[in-house]
Design goal:
The chain is of the alpha/beta class and 271 residues long. 55% of the residues lie in helices and 13% in strands. It has two domains: 161 residues, Rossmann fold, CATH 3.40.50; 90 residues, ProC C-terminal domain-like fold (Orthogonal Bundle). Helix 6 links the parallel strand 7 and strand 8. The protein binds 1,4-dihydronicotinamide adenine dinucleotide and (2S)-3,4-dihydro-2H-pyrrole-2-carboxylic acid. Catalyzes the reduction of 1-pyrroline-5-carboxylate (PCA) to L-proline.
Length: 271
Amino acid sequence: MTKIVFVGAGAMAEAIIHGLTKEKIISPESIYVTNKSDENQLNYLKERYNVQIVCDQKKALTEANIIFLAMKPKDANEALTSLAPYLNNNTTIISVIAGISIQTITNSLGNRPIARVMPNTSAAVGMSASAVCWNELIPEASKLPIINLLESIGSVKVVAEEDLHVVTALSGSGPAYLYYFAEQFESAAIEHGLNKVDARQLFIQTMEGATQMLKKGDVEPEELRRKVTSPGGTTEAGLEQLMEHKVNEAIFACINAAQNRSRELGKLFET
Ligand SMILES: NC(=O)C1=CN([C@@H]2O[C@H](COP(=O)(O)OP(=O)(O)OC[C@H]3O[C@@H](n4cnc5c(N)ncnc54)[C@H](O)[C@@H]3O)[C@@H](O)[C@H]2O)C=CC1
Ligand SMILES: O=C(O)[C@@H]1CCC=N1
């Protein structure tokens, strides 16, 4: 049975565990969790998902088939140093840490199969938009199982490592941008008299409907937008404000800053 150890047990680890256990891809008895200090969080994960808390670090790490690295970039070096002595040669490392390169992980853990994944927290509902890259030590035969594992939490694209920076900016951080939009549209609608429940439901359904239209893929977003925008109508009036406030520039600046930060984090914690 495949044994998976999560080193780092925060928001992202939980979202992945939620997805994996919900889809019954792997039995919770085979999923182990450990973190730096927060015992309450480990107990919570055990209670909620029935996963195992690592008691014997050495045993858990030595026997692991897959180790997920799920700590913040600033904690990566310390974590990698503490793991290094216990790994067996065949263990596959899957890092979800933003910015930290395969080379930096290799520098601490030695040459071994390493994949980097950029998921997002929608993994919790099986809707992560994940991208993965790997080093050449990941055997051909292991690629599909890794993709299948990740597909249990959503969609997966295989990308070049260099592209993970922009992927992180777009889909790793993406849910937060959409939640920000949700907050703002909701507040604006409430200001104009709608109640909170209706405002939220109407916005969610609008996002969902627009997503479905985009997903059909037969009409470009620009054309879909035109179909909503009657000349001299309400949409035009609204869009004019978005353009006047340079929302397009804000979005370019947002993606640029996020992908830059991913590069910076990689450099900052390079070993
Ligand atoms: N939250 C998100 O939406 C996404 C996060 N990520 C990446 O996932 C990683 C984790 O992010 P979050 O879960 O949001 O952070 P978090 O702060 O919620 O969780 C971090 C976990 O790492 C543990 N930790 C810290 N130092 C450790 C050490 N030396 N050994 C073992 N465990 C240690 C902490 O105790 C905590 O359980 C980050 O690198 C982030 O870039 C990637 C995609 C999306
Ligand atoms: O904000 C962050 O750094 C992480 C990576 C992508 C989403 N959250």
